[in-house]
Amino acid sequence: MEIAVVGGGLMGHGIALVLALAGHGVRLTDTRPETRAAVPGLMASALATLREAGAAPEGWDEARLSQAVRIEADLAATVAGAGLVIEAITENPEAKRALFAELDRLCGPETILASNTSYLDVFPLMPESRQTRALVMHWYTPPYIIDLVDVVPGPGTDPAVIAAIRDLVLGLGQKPVVLKRFVSGYIANRIQQAISAEVFHLLDEGYASPHEVDEAIIHGLSLRIPILGHLAKADFTGLELTQRALANGSYAPPPQRDRSETLDALCAEGRTGVMAGKGYFDWGGRDPADLFRERDRKLLALKAAMAGIGRMEGT
Question: pTM (2 decimals)?
């Protein structure tokens, strides 16, 4: 299938790489010339990391990748004849609305429109005539390593379209999770938001340091999750204990907040994360590209180990 990706930033270039490695012809565009210029290098670097880990299909190199993913300056040329168009632009409702209106004009009636939005309900932003062939197709970063893809119908999406996209994701070697209807953040992001709310509470109220929070997550919470998930872990613990914990009120969620004092202080100091060299942690002045490569190598090693270990599954 010919697939168009609109938006070449953090997610768009990674999505294009995933699609190309699975054998799809891909065309990618971005409104910013500097982003279009950076995309080939970003994809080549990610491919090199995959090859190092033995996680890339045979026969792929930078030259082949440059043939498989065509970078276009013009939106019309990008989407012409595409069976699927994936929107991966900024999380701005009006920008998305304008893009969908333009795609409606440029695309044929059979083209499927998918949005990689993380939180926005994009369906009201799409023309009514496109609703039956519109859906959310949401990846996680980096999409060439993290296999989860949320597949989410709108209120008018044809079930056959959802089935076709689910099959496409499976064909990429990734894991589609099909929701019954839209909810902002889907499943993984909503759980992550709940974790973040508790973490902000622990930090802001002075219960623990960032280091201790991450130690607890890595050495306590995370070790079991890859094998059991959350609900299978509850089965192994025993559901009666879960009942008692709920009845005893042993956990009270933190109050809803729209800011974190510790987070605000870090941002005010310019400690905005890896790209700035510091965030919750000091990253030692290392090149962010090196840090991203190290992250990717470790994720790939963990992914390979987990494939060998397997998970426990019920029915």
Answer: 0.91
Using CA atoms of 124, 164, 174, 1 in order, give the dihedral in degrees to the nearest 10.
Answer: -100
d(CA 213, CA 218): 9
Q: What is the Cα–Cα distance from 280 to 208, expressed in whole angstroms?
A: 13
Show the domain range for 230: 188-309
Domain count, the chain: 2
What tokens does 54 get? 């033995």
Secondary element (H or E) of residue 137 = strand 134-139
**Cα 294 from Cα 314, distance rounded (Å):** 34
Domain assignment present for 85: yes
Q: Which two tokens stand for residue 259?
A: 């800011």
Q: Is the peptide bond before 143 cis (omega within 30 degrees of 0)?
A: no
Same domain (yes/no): 139, 172: yes
CA distance 86 to 95: 15
**Which domain-ending residue is among 159, 178, 197?**
178
Dump pLDDT digits (tens) for 35-87. 999 999 999 999 999 999 999 999 999 999 999 999 999 999 999 999 999 99
- Cα 90 to Cα 99: distance, rounded to the nearest angstrom: 11
Q: How far apart are CA 235 and CA 230, in angstroms?
A: 9
Query: 81 and 30 in one domain?
Result: yes
Given a contact cutoff of 8 angstroms between Cβ atoms, the answer to whether 56 and 47 are in contact is yes
Amino acid present at 273? G
DSSP state of 132: G
Q: Would residue 300 count as lying in a domain?
A: yes
Report, in angstroms and rounded to the nearest whole number, the Rg of the chain calculated over CA atoms. 21
